Amino acid sequence: MSDEWGAFADRIAVHAQNYLDGLTRLAGGEGGDAILPLLLVEVAQVSSAGAQLGASQDVILSGNWEPHLSEDPDVDPLRTALAERLGPVDDYAEVFDPYKDTSVTPYRLSDDLSAVAADLNHGLRHYRAGRPLEALWWWQYSYFNTWGNHAGAAMRALQALVAHTRLDVAEERTTV
């Protein structure tokens, strides 16, 4: 593996861990009422890492196979905690693929955010096992296949929610 790939894996691993740490803190109650803008920041930052994966050349594994890992940790407790924190804004509508499937699909922010976490965590497990190329392959593959879509959809929903909280203000009444 080249030093360039190793350095790239190091950078993506930092983004992945930061996302997991931030999401866990927010699901646990940190951030208080500022959860929506803080989630927007977390998703935007990890999406930057995804864009870097998308812009890089394809990562090809020797033998074109992924080494086996034990079962990934369950992200359902994280998803459940996020759903509870998000409450009525958890559900939203999204167009899955604006070029192939333009029908509106129901989504949940908690599902999207935890799906991203699951894919990033899987790559981190390869990275921590001393297989940075496998980690990069997984992060890139899953970015195109799953977590990139979930992060993009969540970012659009979170941006809309934050915009609504800032722009949808009640008109002030003045008495004459």
Automatic annotation (TrEMBL):
Superkingdom as given in the UniProt entry: Bacteria
InterPro entries cross-referenced by the UniProt entry: DUF5063, DUF5063_sf
Protein name in the entry: DUF5063 domain-containing protein
Source organism (scientific name): Planobispora siamensis
